[in-house]
Amino acid sequence: MARFFYTLAVLALLPWAVLHLLWRARRQPEYLRHWSERFGFFGAADIRGSTTPTIWLHAVSVGETRAAQPLVAALHECYPAHRILFTHMTPTGRATSEALFGDTVARIYLPYDTPWAMRRFLRHLRPQFGLIMETELWPNLIAACRQEKVPLQLVNARLSARSERRYEMFPALTREALRGLAAIGAQSAADAARLEALGARGVTVTGNIKFDVAAPPEQIELGREFRARRGARPTWLAASTREGEEALILDAWKEVGADGAALLVLVPRHPQRFDEVARLATDRGFKVQRRSDNAAIEPATQVLIGDSMGEMFAWYASADVAFIGGSLLDFGSQNLIEAAACGTPILIGPSTRNFAEAAREAIACGAAQSVRDAVDLVVQVNALLANTAVRQVMGAAGRAFAGRHRGATARTMEMISRAVR
């Protein structure tokens, strides 16, 4: 009965979903493409699983897709005769899988969660098993997988206290969804406890797969190239910043930090905001360049806009200090693990719920420092840029921190094998 009312709610929201796609398409035209896939119609998309056995992996957007890299490599190794198909919910997630995996995987959008669209999806695809990255609970999808006898597993699962409270508002629906999964691999014991409190059974703590993502050698080389372009200037990186954060950072940098000696590299999280962020910097009187210009950094340049996709490892490798975006305002933080693995000293704001345990450990071991607000961020940036010895200690602590937590992919593959058997 709970799922019946949920389905009615999904149907009622479908017109809003269409309007939302049109609204997003104003700034990101890619939202107008592949519409039929969102409703369970695949047209000419060559994704049938009747001849080639298929493993289906759902990664909603950019972060989940990038985190899946070591898991995809392990799946290719363990199941060489299978084809891997990604499903996404956003164009940026889809573009990220194209950049990372090319033709080695297929990709489509996951349909909206209606019973008939999910049945069409599964009968067209016919996966041997499915994997959902992190925490995407779609009740009708999970029910359809049970009906079609497709083992569906939740891998690299995380659940913040805030998300737990949201799911607690729908206890019967959440419990049915969690118990419909063939297996759940949680990032931490705290995540496992929250999932079990909501009704999940037999949760395995596998660790965070993001610790297993290795910096590609070509990205490290590109980082060296970035360093060569800027010369000897000290540089700090504001990585994966979210809407509202750039203005705060730029205002603070202008007020207490920008003296011409150091360079600020701003890399917005979403590509549709590259032009907007460049205007924010220009309107405040900064001398601005863009990565897409592919030019040496002029001595007078104060802000460099990282308007590129798939180069975050290179930005971390080239920076003297990195601030993790999404943590200054209440977005829950972006991924700090890549910066730690590169040995880049980390600064992180007060909002860390998406990486709560990793942030606590990174701060505790000396790989990261917390900041209260944008002014505090700039003050700490200046202090670190002036102290090479402290940066070296923090960088070494970050590498050690990342190394201690590797191995989640192997534990996840063991769980997958058990569930599939």
Structure overview:
With 421 residues, this protein is α/β, with parallel strands linked by helices. It folds into two domains: 28-208 and 406-420, 3-Layer(aba) Sandwich (Rossmann fold), CATH 3.40.50; 217-404, Rossmann fold. It has 18 helices and 14 strands. The chain has helices spanning 2-25, 62-67, 69-78, 91-101, 115-125, 139-147, 161-168, 171-179, 189-197, 217-230, 245-257, 274-283, 312-318, 337-341, 356-364, 374-385, 388-404, 408-420; strands at residues 54-58, 83-88, 105-109, 127-133, 152-157, 183-186, 204-205, 235-241, 263-268, 288-290, 303-305, 321-324, 346-348, 368-370. A seven-stranded parallel β-sheet has the order 3-2-1-4-5-6-7, with helices on both faces. Helix 5 (115-125) packs across helix 6. The longest helix is centred in the N-terminal third of the chain and has 24 residues, at 2-25.
